């Protein structure tokens, strides 16, 4: 029994608090983080910066394979292997240029993913599923009881501590992949991604679109940032309490999208002329001045991948495979 | 053992028979090849089209993984509301409205997924998810473009008898003091209907294909047909409304960009 | 062989009823260098895009008549084939470049044309040497200065070894030093007798590198003259929006030529306003995380003055503006003491600063968040709870926006959009306006309109601080110049006082209007 049980036993407070949690339950910690990092912070973890660490020297194909292997291993093994892998990958960020800052950002991003992941699973997990992880329902700690009509929205009658734990466990499958995916983008030049795609025989048209996308993501953040700040300068949030700022910040970010799209789309023609007048898609293939090579770090990474696969097999053999059914989120 | 995070379960209780799924995707692929062969495949997309798709994909990433995922926390996690999904619907329709060539829906979904993988998912579960989304969401948009004869949301229709004389293209910078030609309201109505149709179609794949096939196929998730039907019904109103809004935003953007 | 041979050409964009370009007859010989002038939207871009085949192969339009470029019809030749004959360099280097490193950018075209690896390397090195970027090959493209970026784009075009070059306003978006570097290259091309078509607003600066001037207006060639005839035609050119230095009129009046003595020429400056009420004073310090000082200076503005902020790229001009209005990058650290009209705003929130200071970024388009012009202008008033219909009407009238008040701001022309943006920030209450490079990429006609607008607003007590490289604009419309160098304001004075300083070009990267050199040297020899 939790000390606040009287709150959900009284129908009035039960209803009010349930709806508050329903709408804003996990928003607060995430908003706090958004407030700390700001849009520009996210821009930083989506943009390549020159660096000297070993990740920068590796072949992008190796990095891509590594993230696929990590995904596979996290998907077929018990949750805590995913958690360890996440931690390991996050630590790699320290080897990057301006590593501490990047480490901090990715940690916060991982944290929000864990909370978000947890929240999208915990209230909906049926007891039958939970029992596979925590076999004795009698020992479950009820944290909150929802009003009965919440069942209609797919909610379980009560939220248990065990469901939250299960939610966190599930989320580690996402976090390992998320942190591995950003590794590739942060340490590989767009040109090398282009080369990687060419090597993988992906048509030029698609590679080009993807490249434009990669180059545009940080520009979007920077333009949205300008637009948002301009709205504040023009009076948004006037006389309002600081607590409401994040809400205004989000609002401003959303209304900034259309002008930002228009601004970027207007520039599309220039880039198109510039690419076409330099022979883009003149022939089905293209030659390359530089070819991607493999260095010693790549071979080390291949070794790591091999070990990870062995680990996954062993984990499954010894009963640490993915025994928890995934509810499908 | 699984391949790239895909388990390959095909006999979970309630799961749609895999034969049906295979037939659907085989037919969809045939359609893609038929259209591709007829129109010249990727070649028919101009470089500007490819750039629109690339920029659109970048927006989809920013929306889905950064803004939308935060925003989503403000809204209840119910099938009635899906902030990330709606953002993607809007962006795909904006790009489709600018390009208006059959195939743009599928190509956009494909590029969106590759970029999403680069930034977020790390190619987990691929290529299955990309094929699935491309041949459902993407294909539906293309079907509507084909049905409108490449005049999606009335963009590109010019001076027809039905609509009187107007032009949905933006003016050149030169006409300094000129005002944009007015768009008749029947065009907006037409666009709204087309947007609603796409919204309705977009409500189908997730409950039917994902919840009743790919979720068990990939993760061994259980299939609850009560929930599948409930989700389907719950998705429809929101998706239709957003489809309509997306169509109207698309007209505005197409005018401003001057496609 | 002829570079260009056009007969009875008519280019009509889809959805338009009348042609956007009409040329009865035009021949450009191989090795000739031609300057194209005219207002924005006159048909210059249509002309060059028809030569390189972008129209109709990429931009849909109906192209009637005969057109031959080195014997090929660009309509029936794929763009990539045309690009081996004619290279195209565009205005904005940032939106042309998309590869990560300089070397990749330069090699892009060659790789597309499937040259073998060794040949690509040789050609990349050669063209990098020509434009002087050999030392930059391993650099990231997004860290280059505007001038370096533009030379990279040019190297990429040159690597494909085209017989002719089209340069579409190649210096419009870059600083004066970058501009000088590009013009230096023109001299080289000229020595090699490369055929050139140059679209450029800075007529007096390109003059040494051209043979002929073509003026396009309203889609027609209205003037096609040899460069020596420019003096005679200076009035016509000026009337149609071409930036003409004052001494051309003097030469015309005295019936002289370019080689004549100009000692009698007097450059008269417009009257300068001098305010005596201090409206803004600021002490600003901005530094990076690793302690590098970006800005460390004091600034004060007097009421009603139009002040230009000039200096090299990277001198800290934009950073200074952003620090004062409070929108610096989170990565930077700053220390600000700011007083506006005796109110201490050092720690003020954004909306509070916005009540006093308006800021217009270069990409002001991203600030339009409302569906109609009137809502956009009312945004600030409504947010501040001081919405007043009469005041809104006043703004609409002041900026001639009455007719378009119900229109979508995103659909307006560039000039109208700028007026909506300006009206919107003034409607928020600001009496001081900061503008970041509003003249960049604009032709003289539009810069003059901007100048007059700013002067009109000065009449009602608005104070301006304008970051610009455009010295002729400053000379004609500003009251005062502040010059920044390495984060400090080091010079301040009336435009003529600044422009007459000997070291201004070398030491501060400011290229005064050529009138000042003419005045100093008494001839045009300095240009050649």
What does it look like?
Chain B: The chain crosses the membrane at residues 16-36, 48-68, 80-99, 106-123, 135-157, 186-205, 225-249. Chain B: Keywords: Membrane, Transmembrane, Transmembrane helix. Chain A: The chain crosses the membrane at residues 16-42, 78-96, 103-122, 163-185, 243-265, 299-320. The complex is a heterotrimer of chains A (329), B (259) and C (528). The model of chain A has no long low-confidence stretch (mean pLDDT 81). With 329 residues, chain A is mainly α. Chain A has one domain (28-317). Chain A has helices at 5-9, 11-24, 27-44, 54-57, 60-76, 79-92, 99-121, 127-133, 161-187, 190-199, 204-233, 245-255, 257-266, 268-276, 296-317, and strands at residues 142-145, 158-160. With 259 residues, chain B is mainly α. Chain B is 65% helix and 0% strand. Chain B contains 8 helices and no strands. In chain B, helix 3 crosses helix 8. Residues 159-180 of chain B have low confidence and may be disordered. Chain C has 528 residues and is an alpha/beta fold. Chain C has 2 domains: 2-235, 3-Layer(aba) Sandwich (Rossmann fold), CATH 3.40.50.300; 278-500, P-loop containing nucleotide triphosphate hydrolases (Rossmann fold, 3-Layer(aba) Sandwich). Helices cover 36% and strands 23% of the residues of chain C. Chain C contains 21 helices and 19 strands. In chain C, helix 5 (102-112) runs parallel beside helix 7 and helix 7 runs parallel beside helix 8. The two termini of chain C are 29 Å apart. Classes of the chains: A mainly alpha (329), B mainly alpha (259), C alpha/beta (528). Chain B binds chain C through residues 46-48, 158, 167, 169-180, 252, 255-256, and chain C through 13-15, 20, 39-42, 58, 403-404, 407-408, 410-416.
């Amino acid at each position: 029994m939790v000390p606040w049980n009287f709150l959900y036993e009284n129908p009035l407070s039960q209803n009010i608090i349930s709806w508050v949690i329903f709408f804003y339950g996990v928003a607060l910690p995430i908003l706090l983080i958004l407030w700390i990092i700001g849009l520009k912070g996210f821009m930083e973890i989506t943009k390549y910066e020159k660096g000297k660490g070993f990740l920068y020297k590796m072949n992008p194909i190796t990095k891509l394979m590594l993230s696929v292997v990590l995904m596979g291993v996290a998907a077929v093994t018990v949750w805590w292997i995913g958690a360890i892998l996440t931690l390991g990958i996050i630590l790699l960020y320290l080897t990057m240029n301006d590593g501490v800052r990047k480490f901090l950002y990715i940690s916060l991003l991982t944290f929000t993913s864990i909370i978000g992941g947890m929240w999208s699973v915990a209230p909906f997990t049926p007891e039958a599923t939970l029992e596979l992880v925590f076999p004795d329902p009698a020992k479950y700690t009820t944290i909150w009881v929802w009003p009965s009509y919440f069942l209609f929205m797919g909610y379980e009658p009560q939220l248990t501590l065990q469901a939250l734990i299960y939610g966190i466990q599930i989320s580690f499958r996402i976090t390992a992949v998320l942190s591995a995916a950003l590794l590739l983008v942060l340490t590989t030049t767009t040109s090398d991604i282009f080369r990687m795609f060419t090597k993988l025989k992906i048509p030029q048209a698609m590679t080009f679109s993807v490249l434009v996308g990669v180059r545009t993501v940080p520009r979007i953040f920077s333009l949205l940032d300008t637009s948002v700040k301009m709205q504040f300068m023009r009076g948004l949030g006037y006389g309002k309490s600081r607590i409401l700022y994040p809400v205004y910040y989000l609002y401003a970010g959303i209304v900034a999208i259309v002008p930002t799209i228009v601004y970027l789309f207007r520039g599309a023609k220039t880039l198109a002329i510039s690419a076409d007048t330099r022979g883009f898609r003149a022939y089905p293939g293209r030659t390359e001045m530089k070819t991607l090579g493999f260095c010693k770090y790549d071979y080390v990474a291949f070794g790591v991948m091999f070990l990870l696969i062995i680990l996954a097999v062993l984990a499954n053999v010894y009963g640490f495979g993915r025994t928890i059914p995934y509810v499908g989120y | 053992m699984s391949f790239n995070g895909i388990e390959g379960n095909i006999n979970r209780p309630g799961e749609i028979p895999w034969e049906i799924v295979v037939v659907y995707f085989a037919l969809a692929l045939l359609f893609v090849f038929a259209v591709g062969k007829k129109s010249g495949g990727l070649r028919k997309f101009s470089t500007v089209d490819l750039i629109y798709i690339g920029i659109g994909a970048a927006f989809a990433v920013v929306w889905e993984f950064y803004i939308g995922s935060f925003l989503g926390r403000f809204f209840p996690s119910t099938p009635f509301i899906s902030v990330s999904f709606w953002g993607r619907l809007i962006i795909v329709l904006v790009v489709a409205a600018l390009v208006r060539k059959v195939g743009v829906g599928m190509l956009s979904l494909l590029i969106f997924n590759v970029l999403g993988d680069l930034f977020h998912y790390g190619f987990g579960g691929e290529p299955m998810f990309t094929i699935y989304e491309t041949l459902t969401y993407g294909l539906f948009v293309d079907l509507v473009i084909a049905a409108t004869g490449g005049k999606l949301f009335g963009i590109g229709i010019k001076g027809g008898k039905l609509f009187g004389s107007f032009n949905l293209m933006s003016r050149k910078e030169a006409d300094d003091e000129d005002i944009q030609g007015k768009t008749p309201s029947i065009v907006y109505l037409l666009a709204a209907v087309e947007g609603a149709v796409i919204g309705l179609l977009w409500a189908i794949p997730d409950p039917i294909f994902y919840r009743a096939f790919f979720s068990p196929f990939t993760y061994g998730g259980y299939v609850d047909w009560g929930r599948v039907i409930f989700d389907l019904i719950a998705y429809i109103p929101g998706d239709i409304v957003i489809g309509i809004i997306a169509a109207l935003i698309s007209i505005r953007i197409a005018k401003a960009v001057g496609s | 062989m002829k570079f260009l041979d056009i007969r009875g050409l008519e280019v009509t964009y889809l959805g338009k009823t009348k042609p956007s370009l009409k040329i009865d007859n035009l021949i450009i010989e191989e090795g000739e260098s031609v300057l194209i002038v005219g207002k924005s939207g006159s048909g210059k871009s249509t002309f060059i895009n028809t030569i390189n085949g972008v129209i109709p192969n990429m931009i849909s339009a109906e192209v009637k008549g005969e057109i031959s470029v080195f014997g090929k019809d660009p309509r029936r030749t794929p763009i990539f084939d045309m690009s081996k004959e004619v290279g195209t360099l565009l205005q904005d280097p940032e939106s042309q470049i998309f590869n990560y490193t300089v070397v990749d950018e330069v090699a892009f075209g060659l790789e597309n044309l499937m040259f073998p690896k060794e040949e690509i390397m040789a050609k990349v090195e050669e063209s990098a040497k020509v434009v002087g970027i050999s030392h930059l090959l391993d650099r990231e493209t997004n860290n280059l200065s505007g001038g370096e970026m533009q030379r990279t784009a040019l190297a990429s075009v040159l690597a494909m070894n085209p017989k002719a070059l089209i340069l579409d306003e190649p210096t419009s978006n870059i600083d004066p030093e970058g501009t000088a570097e590009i013009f230096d290259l023109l001299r080289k091309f000229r020595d090699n007798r490369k055929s050139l078509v140059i679209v450029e607003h800075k007529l007096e600066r390109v003059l040494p590198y051209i043979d002929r001037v073509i003026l396009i207006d309203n889609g027609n060639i209205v003037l096609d003259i040899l460069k020596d005839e420019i003096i005679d035609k200076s009035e016509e050119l000026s009337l149609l929006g071409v930036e003409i230095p004052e001494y051309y009129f003097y030469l015309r009046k005295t019936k002289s030529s370019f080689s004549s003595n100009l000692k009698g020429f007097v450059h008269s400056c417009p009257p300068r306003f001098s305010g005596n009420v201090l409206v803004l004073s600021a002490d600003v310090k901005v530094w990076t995380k690793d302690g590098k000082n970006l800005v460390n200076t004091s600034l004060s503005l007097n009421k009603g003055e139009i002040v230009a902020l000039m200096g090299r790229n990277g001198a800290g001009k934009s950073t200074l503006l952003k620090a004062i209005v409070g929108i610096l990058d989170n990565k930077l650290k700053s220390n600000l003491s700011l007083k506006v009209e005796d109110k201490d705003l050092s720690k003020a929130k954004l909306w509070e600063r916005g009540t006093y200071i308006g800021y217009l970024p270069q990409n002001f388009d991203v600030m339009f968040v409302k569906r109609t012009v009137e809502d956009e202008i009312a945004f600030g008033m409504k947010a501040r709870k001081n919405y007043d219909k009469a005041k809104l009407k006043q703004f609409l009238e002041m900026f001639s926006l009455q007719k378009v008040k119900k229109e979508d701001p995103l659909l307006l022309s560039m000039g109208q959009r700028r007026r909506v943006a300006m009206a919107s920030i003034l409607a928020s209450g600001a009496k001081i306006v900061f503008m970041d490079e509003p003249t960049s990429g604009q032709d003289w006609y539009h810069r003059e309109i901007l100048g007059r607008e700013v002067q009109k607003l000065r009449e009602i007590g608005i104070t301006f601080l304008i970051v610009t490289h455009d010295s002729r604009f400053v000379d004609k419309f500003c009251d005062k110049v502040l010059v920044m160098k390495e984060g400090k304001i080091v010079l301040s004075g009336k435009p003529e006082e600044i422009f007459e300083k000997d070291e201004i070009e070398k030491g501060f990267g400011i290229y005064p209007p050529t009138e000042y050199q003419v005045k100093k040297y008494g001839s045009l020899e300095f240009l050649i």
